Amino acid sequence: MLRSCSPPLQTAMPTNGQNSALKLRFGLINHESRYLTAEAFGFKLNASAPSLKRKQVLDAGAGRARGAGGVPAQPPGPLPVLRPGRAGELRGVEPAAGARFVIVPQSDGRWALQSQPYLRFFGGSRDQLSCFAQAIGEPELWAMHLALHPQANLLSLSRRRYAHLSPEEGEVSLDGNVPWGVRSLLTLVYLGGRYSLKTCDSRFLNHDGRLLQEPGRGTGFTLELRAGRLAFKDCEGKYLTPTGPSGTLRAGRCSKPGKDELFDLEESHPQVVLQTPNGKYVSIRQGVNISANQDDETDMETFQMEIDRQSRKCTFRSKEGQYWTLVSHGGIQSTATEVVENTMFELQWLGRRVAMKASNGKYVCTKKNGQLAAVSDSVGEDEQLMLKLINRPMLILRGENGFVCHHRGSNTLDASRSVYDIFSLHFSDGAYHIKGVDGKFWYVAGSGLVCSDGEVPEDFFLELRDRGRMGIRTQSGQYLCGDQGGTLKADGQAARASALWEY
Question: What range(s) does the Fascin-like domain occupy (predicted)?
């Protein structure tokens, strides 16, 4: 059963005790390069849209594998879904009617969708769609375009280990117990109907395991969905798999994916380092007490921020899995193993700095011995921390209406595109500079439009306000928003939904 849905990111239960597996949402592209579209009125379907927007996003619920990897898809909930009639016509019904389709992957990576009750195939063009074909032809073939934020962590289903860039070996290895630091971030790049895996240093994974500066035939993979998990098929019909002791990611010998060739994409939480007014980094190197006493950034000074969707408060977790927690007399230690009230902190964004309020209602301050304690009633210099986001060197932004991308024919930025541009993020004393691939910087023009051809950098302030979403604020205090015409503009007065961006 396929259903239409809106694009905000959804998550399932944690798969490895770390982060959440992303619920796979996608668009379907037919043989005429048009997207399947579910109209809001009358549950009507067509294949007329040239790009992936809200009405073109579908999802498939997890089901058991059938035959050659087909997945009966039956999502929960009361949303109307697609169902074929006996004569092949299509109509919208409630899920209780039992509409189910089996995904039948083809050798070129495309899908055929077969009605489970009637064994007919779904296809067609424009507004002439039906589920009547007894055999698979070009009109019955659909390419999958993932409709999720393309930056994630990759988990091997068989090894239960995470992928990360291993610069010493020049490869992507799957031997990480936790997805830690910038090297664990992978970016899915959609090019010509295939996906490439891009590392944090902007190199592309080739099917033989090498990392290349430019995409090519060997860096493109077709995605196959197997019982809710992903397999990556290369240009020769083989599948990516972890090999050897370090789990080097390369195409193996298998022409049919098994457990070794299956992966989960997991939500990539922001990871940060914090610096106090004394210039020292907050660390757990000295033990369980959270103290600012280090001069350099290592894994012991890196913490993962996990933001609660309801309260928007956050926790800070170490690489070893312990959370910061409030203890007696306002002390803060890294000893909690689960999220409870004392592990939650409320952040207040102050431009270049941030303040934290603990569950006792007190602000966190830096004591003279460097230890952090929640004992202050107001925010002064000792209560301000500099927070640096370390695992987004490549910035991809998606808002309510689509991705941020260079505007064709001008120096402005679109905020409603189905494709995205990759920008680089550079930290500067609590602020950030945003730069395009052409080396030019973002800046705000007098009209409020955000332009991308600046010769000198301009400061922007990032505010991690919701799970997976940030606000971007200018020096004058305005938030970046997409206007009704789809142009990125600095005119937001508050961090409302229109000013929050998936990153």
Answer: 153-265, 278-384, 401-503
Same domain (yes/no): 133, 157:
no
Distance of CA 59 to the CA centre of its chain: 16
337 and 321 Cβ atoms separated by less than 8 Å = yes
Sequence-separated (6 or more) residues with CB below 8 Å from residue 282: 273, 274, 275, 276, 290, 291, 292, 294, 301, 303, 372, 385
Looking at the structure, do residues 246 and 289 belong to the same domain, yes or no? no
Report the chain's terminal Cα–Cα distance, integer Å.
30
The secondary structure of 256-267 as a DSSP string is S--GGG-EEEE-
Q: Which domain holds residue 479?
A: 394-502
Structure tokens at 66: 């059938």
- CATH code, 408: 2.80.10.50
Residues 293 and 204 in one domain: no
List CB contacts of 408: < 8 A, sequence separation 6 or more.
Answer: none
User: Do 10 and 140 lie in a common domain?
Assistant: yes
CA distance 429 to 178: 29
Which pLDDT tens digits describe the chain residue by residue (503 residues)? 565 543 333 333 334 445 667 777 888 999 999 999 988 776 688 999 988 888 888 876 543 323 233 333 333 333 334 555 544 445 444 444 446 888 887 877 788 999 888 899 999 999 899 989 999 999 999 988 888 899 999 999 999 999 999 988 899 999 999 999 999 999 999 887 789 999 999 999 999 999 999 999 999 999 888 877 899 999 999 999 999 999 999 999 998 899 999 999 999 999 999 999 989 999 999 899 999 999 999 999 999 999 999 999 999 999 999 999 999 999 999 999 999 999 999 999 999 999 999 999 999 999 999 999 999 999 999 999 999 999 999 999 999 888 999 998 899 999 988 889 999 999 999 999 999 989 999 999 999 999 999 999 999 999 999 999 999 999 999 999 998 788 999 999 999 999 999 99
Predicted TM-score (pTM) of this structure: 0.85
For the chain, the domain total comes to 4
CA 301, 303, 308 angle in degrees (round to 5)?
160
In a shared domain, residues 350 and 465: no
Query: Of 447, 439, 441, 496, which Cα lies nearest the Cα of 473?
Result: 496
Residue type, 52: L
Tokens, residue 72: 């009966």
Give 444-492 as a 3 state SS string: ECCCCEEEEEECCCCCEEEEEEECCEEEEECCCCCEEEECCCCEEEEEE
